[in-house]
Amino acid sequence: MKAENFPKEIQPFLIPEAKGKLIYRCLGCESEHGIEKLLYTCPDCGQVLLLYDENFERLKEIPGKTWHRIFDYRKMLTLPALKGIYLYHEFIGPVIPTDAVVYLGEGHTPIVEANGLMQEKADVKFWFKNDGQNPSASFKDRGMASALSYIHYLLKVGLVSDVLAICASTGDTSAAAALYASYLNPRIKSAVLLPHKKVTPQQLSQPLGSGASVFEIPGVFDDCMKVVEHLADHYNVALLNSKNAWRILGQESYSYEIAQDFEFEMEKKVVVVPIGNAGNITAVMSGFLKFYECGIISSLPKIIGVQSEHANPVYRYYREPEAEKRRFVPVTVRASVAQAAMIGNPVSMPRVIRLTDQYNRLAGEQRVFFAEVTEQEIMDWELTANHNGHIACTHGGESLAGLVKARKQGIVDKDEEAIVDSTAHALKFAGFQEMYFDNAFPPEFAVTPDTALINRPVLMRPADLEKVPEPGRPIGGKDFEHFVRRVSEEIASALQLRSL
Predict the structure, then answer these.
(1) Whole-structure pTM value
(2) In terms of domains, do 307 and 400 share one?
């Protein structure tokens, strides 16, 4: 639909102009820095940064109901730059011209309501938001669309040249970084660092397929991150991990989409997300806060961050009820099926602390909670969900397990409705499903399969068949008729089918 066909009072807002004044603000010393160069930590004290729009107050001049109309009408446009996360341009990248936006089909992933059986099992009404239906099959594309659009903008105005984008990853970040960087080839090249033997084959294939330089490093993600940080400090590279504040901006789109999909009614809503490097929960809180401050939503939903007991530093921090007694202590992670969350020292922890305090303060009560789940619960709930029409990854299983735990603990009320984050596509983690079905989990995972959830293929070859078809050696005539009849009889018997 073309802009001139929309209501005249909305037309001036449909195509956003590059406005705003973004700055980096340090969460440690509160110093501010310009965005003309890539920064990941504060040059003064080394703390992490967040991006702030010094002209944010201008967005509050537009009534919330007008914003509803702007976003709803803008969603009908065919302009590629506004079809993805930049539908919310004023809140994500107001300084970036639309001709610098990199759009590969990310964002606006479906929210699928759980069936009656699943809602009965969870004892609450809930939806899965399937972020595995992003281009590289994970939520990481939201942040990469933002980070690479910003770098593209810097390239276009001549502030950088010949960029090498680099990241550490447990799989999904590398896939997204390599994909988006390859779109800007040859001006941007990419390199990714992965923990050796800690990434699924499906995830490893993605950056390789996108042409990135891939390096496997001994250890776990935290070790890879230290190497990447050293490279960013000493060499001319663009760091694409969630330490990059532009990544956080892009991932805020997750909150905006949820708000829009529920007609901007967030009362009695609960948003459940897994915690890895803590960038996602940071972005979710930040996004809802911005919409709340501008009157686009009138209440802040509950947010539940979930961690496995095998990688739970954020949960441990908030386990202490008295804020002044809390001390953040990194943990040594153990093997986890939620590989992207297997991070013992999350880079965005200072952001979590700052935004959690702000979120609860604005809400006037505690609205951010943290839950811990077992590896067994993660796998059981993932497979249960997928047996009931979903495509949840292990992190989706982690989120659902966290919702169930929070419901039992009374954090979630019976009359509330939850949106559960499935961060990636189930096929990325098919190996864990296979281990579950084969009862082949190593002891360190502490996963024992529930026989009711095991599903294996059955070879149907009746013993009385002398001849069966083989590739390149078909059979015909009465032999084939006999083959079809006997196989059909065996299948009918296995399925307990009644004859017509």
Answers:
(1) 0.93
(2) yes
